[in-house]
Every structure is written in structure tokens, then in C-alpha cells.
């Protein structure tokens, strides 16, 4: 459908929707002029969204890694599946600016808030809107969550790494067999997502001078760096370098989406294939607020959103099989509230426990050589420091800084099996919220700092950015994990204890860490393993 056709279809309904937003929606909701602005920029997200069927055999809540994999495998098995996603379905374009940027964020960037602190430490104000990234503030920790069709695959930095066997077995024990994962499920995901390290021609191009500096500095400090597998489509990155696509990855866009589809996100593989079967349908702009069970079917109270965050309709949907894939935050919030509100009282005491940050931190040093004008966002390599708290640093870019200032960034991940948060229900609000200990990341910070200090000393550069930002910051996580942990809140395959045909199939099943690597590959491989077992046994006739 052309952009002009979208404008025609939505022009009549937009003023009424926007006026309703001003008259009856939240005070912060975008008004008529704001909606007109975003409709002009991305008319596709204003297209009419159909109402889901009242009854579906299976419903999947969420369209990130776990949800998209569940949707495809259920659809391939002939099971009529409804996928509910609270965020919009954003298009791609090689010429248009579909998404906001870290440098100039607007409402497209963030979910239902009017300001956010970027990783450059500056706070930006923007329109209240249903943007792609939900930054949920939980005391001393900000949790980053995808809020769009495709979930985290749209807003992450693309790195997908398999953990070391010893770390994996420490995390999962006898619940999950490493050999099965290594031989079958990790490779299955790699093939589906076409994971590959950065090719030499891209690594040696101008926008990745900071990646080469990162490797050189690490080597001078005695570290061995290894290439990282990535979901980025290197042919699209090459088209940016050639000038045949609008620049995105090569100018440091990633956290708020890549407009040209440079990331091979889930909309281009699992979700696309699931919907092509005719058995799975993704309904954007639908958020589940409450779950009940009558002994036969699950009932889901559901809100439908307009792009500006206004609730335009509310209704109940039912299903026989319910898959929670709203991310560790969303799935845990729903289940804790359902248990403590009395809607699903048989959920056990482990629901809402075992939540962790994957040991995430942002690590920087400054006054490094400048080898390019910009810093490309795809990661080229990583290093690993074993020890009391094993730590990985990955070559990162500097989000929200449009030109290369000689600041070298890393994403740190510490293998912390100790510090955990939990979800607590608040009867006054009717919602569950994360409680995270104020000093929960102290050990992670210390371990990342030790590695960064060693590299800085070997290269005569400065840790942090003086007068601007600290050397290590663990006040956020882009990798929330836990809350419905395998073997505790669920069985070994994600079946939630206490209720039939109720499953967790996302990062909530992982106990707070994936062993000092990015969790998306392990989330995906576990989802492939678990849905295969569930379809074979729970749907058997």
C-alpha cells in the first residue's frame, strides 16, 4: 500500500481520534497537531487495525523473540494463533526517517512518556506517544523494553552470542541439556536470523574506525578480542556506505530502530513467515491488562490503542492456550498481578522472583584516537575476563553523540548469579512493580571498571568523560531477565505451575543472567526448544 493510500484512508478518522484524545484521553496525550505531524512522517501506523477474534485456540502476548518463535511454530502446526502486541507495526524505508534518533528523539522513540535520559546523560523532552522503546523506571534501575511489533529485535544492537557451556550449565543445571541446545536449537535460530560477524570490508570502512581502535586498545592491554555474531543485514549496511540507502547503521542509529531495515528484525523472518501461513495474525496496538481462568478457557481483558497512546476500545478475548511473551517485565507483571489479585490464585510463590539485569553496564573512556567522523552502531567484537565475576565487554558506539569525539564505548555484562529483584503487587494501583536493591549492580560495576581501567592505563587514555559522564554506569538494563524462572515458576519447558495450557516463553524464564553475553540468542533457542516440546505433547490428539 502506498503512502498516499494510507493518508487517504486515515485522513477522515484522524481528526476525530485526535479530538477524542484531547477531550477524554490523558492530559499528556498528543493533540491534533502532534498526530498530524506523526501521520505525515509515518502514515502506516495510523492505518485501521481490525479487532481480534473473540476466541482463538492460542493467544501469544508479545511479538519479541519468544513470541514470534511461538507464533511461527504454532502456525506451522496448524494451530490458529492470535498474537497481541501493545506497540505499533512500524514499516521500513530506504529513504524515509521512520524512527526517531538518539540525537533528536521525539514521540516515535519512547513509549508513553514525555522525557528520557539518554546514555549521553542529557535529558530530552518530547511528545507523549506510543514510541518503540519503553524505559520503565524502577527506583535505581531503568529497564529498557521493546514496545513495537518485533519487540526487542527492533531496538537492540543486534549482537547474538551463545554462552560458554560451563556458564550455561551453572545457570540451568539439569533442567536444560546443553548438548541439545548446542546441536539443535542455537543453530536453528542462527539460520533463521542469518547471524554473521561483521565482514572485513565493513569493519575496515570509515564509520567503524572506533571498532578498530577498540580492538587495538584491548590488544595492547593483553586482551584477545573475538568477532561477535550479529543480526544486522550487512548488504543493507553496504548500501548505506555506497549511498543507495539513507544512512542509519553507519551513523549510530539502533536503540530507537533502523529505518531502512538494516537489522534483520523479527518482522523480516519469524513473524513474516508465521503470518504467511494464514494461521497466525499479529494485532498491533493491543495491550492485555488482566488474565482470568474459568476452569476451561483463559479470558484476557484487552485495550486497543491509537498511536498517540489513547485507549480507543476495550474488550475481552478468550483462548484455550495462552503464551506469555511480553518480556520479563510484562509477563511477570501480568502473572504477579493475576495471582495476588485473586484471578489466578494457584500460581506459586516463585512467580515474580529471580529477576536480574544480566549484569549490564555502560562503559566509556575518552581522549582516544579519532579514526572516523561517525561511529557505526553494529558491534564488531568482544573480550571476556574470567574471574570471581566473569565480565564481557563488547565494542559499542556512543549513542546520542552525532560525531566521533574520541569516546570509546563498551557494553559490559557481568555473570552475576547473586543479586536479584522481585515483583510486588500494589493493591492501590492494581499493578505489580519491580523492586530492585539499590546496590544490586555494585559488583558488576567493579568488575567492568577493572577491565576498563586496565585498557585505559595500557593506552594512556582517560576513563569516563571528565565533567560529563562516569566511567561505568549500571543504572539501566537492556536485558531484563527472570520473574517466571524455569524449574521454579514453571517446569523445564515453560509450563506455568498451577494452571493448564499456560506458558512462559520469553526472557522471564531465565534466572537473571545468560552468562555474560547478550540474552537474545538464548531466549530464542529456549523458545524453539520449549515450543517444540509443547506442540508435540500438549496439543497431541
TrEMBL record:
Pfam families: GMC_oxred_C (PF05199), NAD_binding_8 (PF13450). The keyword Thylakoid does not apply. It comes from the Bacteria. Its cofactor is FAD. InterPro entries: Cholesterol_Oxidase, FAD/NAD-bd_sf, GMC_OxRtase_C, TAT_signal, TAT_signal_bac_arc. Keywords: Cholesterol metabolism, FAD, Flavoprotein, Isomerase, Lipid metabolism, Oxidoreductase, Signal, Steroid metabolism, Sterol metabolism. Its EC number is 1.1.3.6, 5.3.3.1. The keyword Flavoprotein applies. GO terms for molecular function: cholesterol oxidase activity; steroid Delta-isomerase activity. Belongs to the GMC oxidoreductase family. Residues 443-527 form the Glucose-methanol-choline oxidoreductase C-terminal domain. Pathway: Steroid metabolism; cholesterol degradation. Residues 1-29 form the signal peptide. GO terms for biological process: cholesterol metabolic process. This is Cholesterol oxidase.
Amino acid at each position: 500500500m502506498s503512502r498516499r493510500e494510507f493518508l487517504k484512508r486515515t485522513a477522515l478518522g484522524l481528526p476525530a481520534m485526535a479530538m477524542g484524545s484531547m477531550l477524554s484521553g490523558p492530559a499528556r496525550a498528543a493533540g491534533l497537531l502532534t498526530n498530524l505531524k506523526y501521520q505525515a512522517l509515518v502514515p502506516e501506523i495510523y492505518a485501521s487495525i481490525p479487532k481480534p477474534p473473540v476466541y482463538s485456540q492460542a493467544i501469544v502476548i508479545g511479538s519479541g523473540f519468544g513470541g514470534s518463535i511461538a507464533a511461527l511454530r504454532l502456525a506451522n502446526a496448524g494451530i490458529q494463533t492470535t498474537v497481541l502486541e501493545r506497540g505499533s507495526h512500524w514499516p521500513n524505508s530506504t529513504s524515509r526517517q521512520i524512527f526517531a534518533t538518539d540525537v533528536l528523539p521525539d514521540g516515535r522513540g519512547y513509549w508513553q512518556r514525555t522525557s528520557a535520559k539518554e546514555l549521553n546523560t542529557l535529558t530530552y523532552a518530547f511528545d507523549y506517544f506510543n514510541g518503540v522503546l519503553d524505559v520503565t523506571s524502577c527506583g535505581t534501575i531503568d529497564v529498557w523494553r521493546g514496545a513495537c511489533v518485533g519487540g526487542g529485535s527492533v531496538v537492540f544492537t543486534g549482537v547474538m552470542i551463545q554462552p560458554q557451556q560451563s556458564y550455561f550449565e551453572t545457570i540451568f543445571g539439569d533442567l536444560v541439556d546443553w548438548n541439545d541446545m548446542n546441536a539443535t536449537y542455537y543453530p536453528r535460530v542462527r539460520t533463521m536470523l542469518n547471524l554473521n560477524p561483521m565482514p572485513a570490508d565493513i569493519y575496515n570502512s570509515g564509520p567503524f574506525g572506533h571498532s578498530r581502535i577498540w580492538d587495538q586498545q584491548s590488544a595492547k592491554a593483553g586482551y584477545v578480542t573475538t568477532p561477535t555474531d550479529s543480526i544486522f543485514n550487512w548488504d543493507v549496511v553496504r548500501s548505506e556506505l555506497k549511498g543507495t540507502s539513507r544512512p542509519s547503521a553507519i551513523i549510530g542509529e539502533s536503540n530507537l530502530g533502523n529505518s531502512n531495515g538494516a537489522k534483520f528484525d523479527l518482522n523480516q523472518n519469524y513473524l513474516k513467515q508465521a503470518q504467511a501461513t494464514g494461521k497466525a495474525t499479529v494485532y498491533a496496538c493491543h495491550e492485555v491488562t488482566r488474565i482470568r481462568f474459568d476452569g476451561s478457557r483463559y479470558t484476557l481483558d484487552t485495550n486497543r490503542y491509537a498511536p498517540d497512546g489513547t485507549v480507543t476500545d476495550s474488550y475481552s478475548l478468550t483462548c484455550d492456550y495462552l503464551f506469555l511473551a511480553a518480556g520479563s517485565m510484562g509477563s511477570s507483571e501480568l502473572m504477579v498481578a493475576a495471582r495476588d489479585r485473586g484471578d489466578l490464585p494457584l500460581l506459586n510463590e516463585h512467580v515474580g522472583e529471580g529477576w536480574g539485569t544480566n549484569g549490564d553496564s555502560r562503559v566509556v573512556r575518552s581522549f582516544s584516537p579519532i579514526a572516523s567522523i561517525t561511529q557505526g552502531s553494529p558491534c564488531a567484537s568482544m573480550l571476556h575476563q574470567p574471574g570471581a565475576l566473569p565480565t564481557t565487554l563488547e565494542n559499542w558506539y556512543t549513542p546520542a553523540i552525532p560525531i566521533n569525539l574520541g569516546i570509546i564505548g563498551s557494553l559490559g555484562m557481568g555473570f552475576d548469579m547473586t543479586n536479584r529483584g522481585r515483583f510486588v503487587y500494589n493493591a492501590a494501583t492494581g499493578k505489580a512493580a519491580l523492586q530492585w536493591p539499590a546496590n544490586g549492580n555494585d559488583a558488576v560495576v567493579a568488575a567492568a571498571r577493572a577491565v576498563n581501567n586496565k585498557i585505559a592505563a595500557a593506552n594512556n587514555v582517560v576513563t569516563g568523560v571528565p565533567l560529563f559522564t562516569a566511567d561505568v554506569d549500571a543504572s539501566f538494563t537492556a536485558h531484563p531477565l527472570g520473574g517466571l524462572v524455569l524449574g521454579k515458576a514453571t517446569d523445564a519447558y515453560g509450563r506455568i505451575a498451577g494452571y493448564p495450557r499456560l506458558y512462559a516463553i520469553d526472557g522471564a524464564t531465565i534466572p537473571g543472567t545468560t552468562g555474560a553475553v547478550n540474552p537474545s540468542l538464548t531466549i530464542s533457542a529456549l523458545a524453539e526448544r520449549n515450543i517444540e516440546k509443547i506442540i508435540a505433547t500438549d496439543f497431541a490428539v
